[in-house]
């Protein structure tokens, strides 16, 4: 049932080109997006002014990336909230708002409670859910189903990737319905999003280098991930992946925050993963890389082909195929998934069932 792979996680990582393609094509065909299966209408999208994205764990990291994309493409106000915090806040929810609950299982207790709270307060709800018929799918007003199929590995990979593209498509359709995007830009994005599956495939075919790098870091005690914008959101996910299956202490920071405290943790040999795919922010993040390097950090750089600006700074660089900046997270997360996987395997851990964790968190 593992389809020849040693673990479900590796199998699910390799399923990503297919399931991401399926999820894209569930609403995008011939350059046009239809949300008929989701329910949310163009008119509703025009009237919404505020979006609350509510989720836990990796799904929350998708929300972080989605916020940047929605803000870039639309004039919507967007807030991203951890479900376990959101539900206990005494916050006035804006009129004309939409709550987007992102959940693979559709059963996460805090996310479900947040959904119910929004409904009680009269806020329209949209679930981005993988499991058909799950509680969140049943109770949300509208549902965008990700087509990841059953995910067995506790550490999410393919569901996360499907949630990301669902968020892009949602942002694109919001922009279109609201007249906030030119036809040309929409067409360019629609063409570009279609290239994600094959580009993920290319990254998967080049995994030996990552495997080699992973073998060099199995014994590290701490790791840091830095990035700005979407790269920060991906760093958060990379860091969670690493800690949950390899048990290496790991933290992700917005690169600009380093000097407000965390840089004191950097010492000779500390491994710092830098995600650098957002072209407008290259220089700023590279200057943060230089800062940690001068304090002895070992730098893993993750960037886009064509950006060779950090070659002199990074000790090990991984390149992802070129793509619109907004979609880069779908590619940059793949090497980080593979790396965590290989580190966990290298340490002899039970990759699919990490200690202390459950696939679906139904307690609060
Ligand atoms: C991490 C992971 C968790 C889940 C979180 C939310 O690899 O899988 O952080 O993302 O527990 O779960 P769902 O998406 O089922 O609500």
TrEMBL record:
Gene Ontology biological process terms, A to Z: carbohydrate metabolic process; fructose 6-phosphate metabolic process; protein N-linked glycosylation; UDP-N-acetylglucosamine metabolic process
One MF annotation (Gene Ontology) recorded for this entry: glutamine-fructose-6-phosphate transaminase (isomerizing) activity
Chief localization: cytoplasm
Origin superkingdom: Bacteria
Gene Ontology cellular component annotations, sorted alphabetically: cytosol
Catalyses which reaction(s): D-fructose 6-phosphate + L-glutamine = D-glucosamine 6-phosphate + L-glutamate
Domain SIS, residue spans: 41-180, 213-354
Catalytic class of the enzyme: transferase
Compartment(s) where it occurs, according to its Swiss-Prot or TrEMBL record: Cytoplasm
Statement: the UniProt record of this protein carries the keyword Transferase: yes
Primary role: Catalyzes the first step in hexosamine metabolism, converting fructose-6P into glucosamine-6P using glutamine as a nitrogen source.
Protein's UniProt name: Glutamine--fructose-6-phosphate aminotransferase [isomerizing]
Gene (UniProt): glmS
First-to-last residue of the parent protein present: 249 to 612 of 612
């Amino acid at each position: 049932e593992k389809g020849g792979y040693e673990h479900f996680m590796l199998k699910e990582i390799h399923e990503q080109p297919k399931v991401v393609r399926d999820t894209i094509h569930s609403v995008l065909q011939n350059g046009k997006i239809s949300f008929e299966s989701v329910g949310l209408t163009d008119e509703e999208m025009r009237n919404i002014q505020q979006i609350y994205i509510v989720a836990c764990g990796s799904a929350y990291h998708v929300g972080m990336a989605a916020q940047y994309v929605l803000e870039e493409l639309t004039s919507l106000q967007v807030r991203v909230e951890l479900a376990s915090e959101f539900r206990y806040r005494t916050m006035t929810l804006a009129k004309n708002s939409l709550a987007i609950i992102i959940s693979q299982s559709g059963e996460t207790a805090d996310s479900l409670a947040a959904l119910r709270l929004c409904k009680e307060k009269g806020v329209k709800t949209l679930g981005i859910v993988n499991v058909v018929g799950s509680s969140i799918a049943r109770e949300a007003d509208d549902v965008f189903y990700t087509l990841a199929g059953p995910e067995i590995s506790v550490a999410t990979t393919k569901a996360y990737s499907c949630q990301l593209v669902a968020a892009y498509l949602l942002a694109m359709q919001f922009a279109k319905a609201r007249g906030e995007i030119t036809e040309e830009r929409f067409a360019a994005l629609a063409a570009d999003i279609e290239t994600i599956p094959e580009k993920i495939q290319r990254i998967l075919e080049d995994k030996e280098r990552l495997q080699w790098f992973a073998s060099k870091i199995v014994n590290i005690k701490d790791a840091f991930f830095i990035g700005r914008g979407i790269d920060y959101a991906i760093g958060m996910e990379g860091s969670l992946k690493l800690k949950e299956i390899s048990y290496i202490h790991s933290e992700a920071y917005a690169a600009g925050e380093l000097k407000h405290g965390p840089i004191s943790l950097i010492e000779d040999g500390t491994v710092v993963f830098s995600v650098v795919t957002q072209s407008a922010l290259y220089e700023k993040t590279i200057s943060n890389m230089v800062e940690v390097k001068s304090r002895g950090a070992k730098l893993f750089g993750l960037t886009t082909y064509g950006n060779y600006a950090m070659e002199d700074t990074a000790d090990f660089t991984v390149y992802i195929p070129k793509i619109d900046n907004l979609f880069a997270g779908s590619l940059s997360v793949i090497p980080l998934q593979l790396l965590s996987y290989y580190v966990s395997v290298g340490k002899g851990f039970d990759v699919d069932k990490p200690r202390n964790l459950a696939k679906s968190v139904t307690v609060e």
